[in-house]
Amino acid sequence: MNYRHHFHAGNFADVMKHVLLLQLLTRLNAKDKPYRYIDTHGGAGKYDLSLAPAQKSGEFLNGIHRLVKLDDSIIRNAPEGVKQYLNLVEQMRETDGKGAYPGSPWFALQGMREMDKATVFEMQRDVFQQLRSNIRDRRAGLHERDVYEGLLGVIPPKEKRGLVMIDPPYELERKDFPQLVELLVAAYKKWPTGVFAVWYPIKDRAMIERFEKKMYKSGIRRQLVCEICVWPDDTPVGLNGCGLLVINPPWKFSEDADEALQWLFPHLRMQDNGGHAAVRWLVGE
Q: Torsion-angle region of residue 250: left (phi > 0), alpha (psi -120 to 50) or beta?
């Protein structure tokens, strides 16, 4: 595989994914019962945006860099989920340097409680070694394993409640993501009460429509689509936006997500006209 997340860490898509991840966990925390967080592509756990890969792409400049430059007066009016996200980023920057940026396993462990557990997959050997060095938490089990082979072996977890965050590199998952749809259908069949959150890039609207049509026809109920597109759909820039498809979203999460995305959009959009942020039900109850 050629994909390395260090090139993309801290970009607008990471901002969106991590804000919504924290909001999902906050909603799960509302019940006084433990849960399991499962991260299918854990990556390195944290990144240094001052190093060559991130500097070469510069993607973080139109993501987290824009937000940390905002005046405190603007941040004070941000939704609670956005403020939690920015506080955690600042926490890491204070301990690891101004170039530090967390990955999803680190964010998740900060958002979880002591009673909750995490299972983190990463199949690339060198990245897994970085993950093991960066994530040292007794609540987290780290697995050097391919999620397409391993996920069905760890669900349903003993806690019965939980969230699976699926964020593949989209090297194998091309076209309308058939492997991903197959995995989701099989995982939902094994754990119909689990929360599944799938991040995906938006480059070609027709492809996303085909993916959504497949998911609609899957028979899975309660599918929520969260989107942010910082460019208009027809802009040939490589990544116009991204989405998070959430199966079984917790109570009130749709409202949290919409509030956060509507606040983030004007700060992350790439031009004055076009683009959007939206939350909608693909399949209801």
A: beta
Are the C-beta atoms of 175 and 213 separated by less than 8 Å? no
Q: What is the pLDDT of residues 83-132, one digit of tens each?
A: 999 999 999 999 999 999 999 999 999 999 999 999 999 999 999 999 99
pLDDT digit string (tens) for 18-65?
Answer: 999 999 999 999 999 999 999 999 999 999 999 877 788 789 999 999
pTM exceeds 0.85, yes or no: yes
Rounded to whole angstroms, the Cα distance separating 10 from 16 reads 10
**Annotated catalytic residue within 14, 48, 116, 167:** 167
- Would you state the structure tokens that stand for residue 138, as one six-digit string? 């007794």
State the DSSP H helix or E strand holding residue 26, giving kind and residue range, or none if neither. Answer: helix 12-28
234 is catalytic: no
Q: How far apart are CA 65 and CA 49, in angstroms?
A: 10
Closest by CA position to 226, among listed 149, 281, 165, 145: 281
Query: Measured between alpha carbons, how far is 128 from 131 in angstroms, rounded to an integer?
Result: 5
List residues forming the annotated binding site for S-adenosyl-L-methionine.
18, 41, 104, 122, 167
Domain positions in the chain: 5-283
Nearest CA among 57, 78, 23 for reference residue 268: 78
Q: Give bridge partners of residue 177 from the DSSP assignment.
A: none
Annotated binding site: which residue ranges?
18, 41, 104, 122, 167
Name the class of domain 5-283: alpha beta
Tokens 């939206």 belong to: 278
